[in-house]
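Please fill in the sequence for the structure shown.

STRUCTURE ENCODING:
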């Protein structure tokens, strides 16, 4: 079987009307999982705002899907307020908030964890999610028509990963926060869920493997091969950004109207498999 055989984000089969007229903000939308989700959302009729710190990449993608781009460092609450505000001034509403921005590492022993590195990571991976849920919820509650908030956690929250303690901590905390906010926001018709990918060879994963294996020459083909062999029950196949985008599309759409406080794992069976795989 061909390694990582996958569907293309530009394939018409991903088109539909599942999000017609909905307004979505996607943090970390300039590349990787966020960018694939932006394309799939737009192809399903949503108006998409890409919120990221990679201005050139984010703006080009936003242009290509007739969306909007806003510079947004999710660790800064004021930037997230600006991103949500853009949705309100542009279309008068926000229906979907995909809190996806995240960073990896540091890798290494807990005995060597630098507390300032931990703080920097939590500022983005955790406080960034808090900012996103908080301000999307405010706008959704005010409008009174409900909404869908989706956050990106990780298989690391379930199984640990690559001696990345700070990362694991941030991703497990997200699942707890999703459950508690879902309990509160359900009365407003707002669903809060998360998606937990595993082993998708994006910039973040490839640089994580480079750090972990101490090999700066490692390319995405090699990472795909490693993950395909060890990180999935579906032999010869690692996850793709489109696999995750489809899961997010489901959670964002009315198809998931009775799904809340859920962690949708997109990992080719990795987290349910026995330890012989890891
Ligand atoms: P990626 O590096 O391609 O994308 C991450 C995006 O987040 C980039 O566009 C980046 O610019 C943006 N970002 C980083 N810091 C930011 C900040 N402070 N403010 C706003 N945007 C910021 O990697 P990806 O794999 O697409 O990662 C997306 C999410 O998926 C992350 O939360 C990551 O932890 C999670 N995840 C990925 C995998 C995987 O296998 N790739 C597995 C589990 C979880």
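FILLED IN BY: designer on duty
SEQUENCE:
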């Amino acid at each position: 079987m061909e390694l990582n055989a996958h569907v293309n984000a530009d394939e018409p089969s991903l088109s539909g009307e599942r999000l017609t007229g909905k307004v979505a903000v996607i943090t970390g939308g300039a590349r990787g999982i966020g960018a694939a989700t932006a394309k799939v959302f737009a192809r399903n009729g949503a108006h998409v705002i890409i919120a990221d710190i990679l201005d050139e990449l984010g703006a080009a993608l936003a242009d290509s899907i007739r969306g909007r781009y806003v510079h947004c460092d999710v660790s800064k609450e004021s930037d997230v307020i600006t991103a949500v505000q853009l949705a309100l001034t542009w279309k008068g509403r926000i229906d979907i908030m995909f809190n996806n921005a995240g960073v990896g590492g540091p890798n290494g022993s807990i005995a060597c964890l630098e507390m300032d590195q931990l703080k920097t990571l939590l500022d983005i991976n955790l406080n960034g999610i808090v900012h996103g849920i908080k301000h999307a919820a405010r706008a959704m509650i005010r409008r009174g028509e409900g909404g869908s908030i989706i956050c990106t956690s990780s298989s690391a929250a379930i199984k640990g990963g690559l001696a990345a303690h700070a990362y694991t901590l941030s991703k497990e905390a997200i699942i707890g926060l999703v459950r508690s906010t879902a309990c509160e926001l359900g009365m407003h018709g707002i669903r809060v869920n998360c998606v937990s990918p595993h082993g998708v060879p994006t910039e973040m994963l490839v640089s994580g493997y480079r750090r972990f294996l101490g090999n700066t020459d490692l390319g995405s083909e090699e990472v795909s091969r490693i993950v395909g062999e060890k990180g999935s029950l579906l032999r010869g196949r690692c996850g793709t950004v489109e696999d995750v985008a489809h899961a997010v599309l489901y959670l964002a759409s009315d198809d998931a109207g009775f799904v809340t406080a859920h962690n949708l794992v997109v990992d080719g069976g990795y987290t349910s498999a026995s330890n012989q795989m890891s």
